[in-house]
TrEMBL record:
<dbReference type="GO" id="GO:0016787">
    <property type="term" value="F:hydrolase activity"/>
</dbReference>
<dbReference type="InterPro" id="IPR032466">
    <property type="entry name" value="Metal_Hydrolase"/>
</dbReference>
<feature type="domain" description="Amidohydrolase-related">
    <location>
        <begin position="44"/>
        <end position="266"/>
    </location>
</feature>
<dbReference type="Pfam" id="PF04909">
    <property type="entry name" value="Amidohydro_2"/>
</dbReference>
<protein>
    <submittedName>
        <fullName>Amidohydrolase family protein</fullName>
    </submittedName>
</protein>
<dbReference type="InterPro" id="IPR006680">
    <property type="entry name" value="Amidohydro-rel"/>
</dbReference>
Length: 268
């Protein structure tokens, strides 16, 4: 079984995407043997009202019974948008969203913003995972119209230390950290907090080139297959698992990475 914990539908303003509808994603899943995908709507990163994107995703999944059991929808919520509390309630109770994806860089708020802390605490109380992404696209290839820097961060891409402020504030939430493309290094105090946190990282980011070593240092229960599709190719995240040597991961560990860690974390 294969579960992809990092997939999208929708559009990216700066590049033409393929396979970016539920129908096309489903075909891609069939081709490569993926059973279930966690999916969000890219449009929510750019809409002033993110809820419009969540409604689009909901309607697209409802358009065919084939999508219901294969696509797990995550809502994009902007906690500095005035109606975010209503959006959260609607997304969970009416649209059936199973988690949240948050974009502080694109929506321009600090990781210690009181609204973000409140949102993550509400997600914790609703038993919803909260997903943060190191980067959406490689900053070296971004459009000049894409984010370069925002007032609170010195660079367009994150490392783990940039995500740690919210984990420090709400250490008992469930976190997904996706497209891990830069450093996982932390100061000792933060490393101790991170070690105790409930975190799942996907295999799409370039830092996963050393997945074998990360399994030893971070723990084999902390990783799961992810593609970051359609912004990244569909196979690299899978090959990082299948290419692990016997002394890095036995078949039991590979089963954890392919699906079992995701099943346990997502409670499916």
């Amino acid at each position: 079984m294969l579960i992809d914990i990092n997939a999208y539908v929708g559009h990216w303003p700066f590049v033409q995407l393929r396979h970016n509808t539920c129908e096309k994603l489903s075909q891609r899943m069939d081709k490569f043997g993926v059973d279930v995908s966690v999916v969000s709507n890219l449009n929510g990163i750019f809409y002033k009202n993110t809820q419009s994107a969540n409604e689009e995703l909901h309607e697209e999944i409802r358009s065919s019974g084939r999508f219901k059991d294969r696509l797990i929808p995550f809502a994009v919520i902007n906690p500095i948008y005035a109606g975010w509390r209503r959006d959260l309630e609607t997304s969970v109770n009416k649209l059936g969203m199973k988690g949240l994806r948050l974009y502080p860089k694109y929506h321009d708020y600090k990781m210690t913003d009181p609204a973000l802390i409140e949102l993550v605490k509400r997600a914790r109380d609703l038993d919803l995972p909260v997903a943060f992404t190191y980067r959406m696209v490689d900053s070296r290839q971004r459009s000049w119209l894409d984010i370069d820097r925002v007032p609170y961060t010195p660079r367009p891409e994150w490392s783990l230390k940039d995500i740690m402020p919210i984990i420090r504030e709400v250490p008992d939430a469930r976190y997904m950290i996706l497209n891990v493309a830069n450093s996982l290094s932390l100061e000792q105090e933060d490393a101790n907090i991170f070690k105790k946190a409930n975190v799942l990282m996907d295999t799409s980011g370039r830092s996963m080139n050393s997945l074998g070593n990360l399994l030893k240092t971070q723990g084999k229960e902390r990783f799961a297959f992810g593609t970051h599709s359609p912004l990244l190719d569909y196979l690299t995240g899978m090959l990082r698992i299948e290419a692990l040597r016997d002394d890095e991961a036995n078949e039991t560990t590979k089963k954890l990475l392919r699906a079992e860690n995701a099943q346990a974390f997502l409670e499916i």
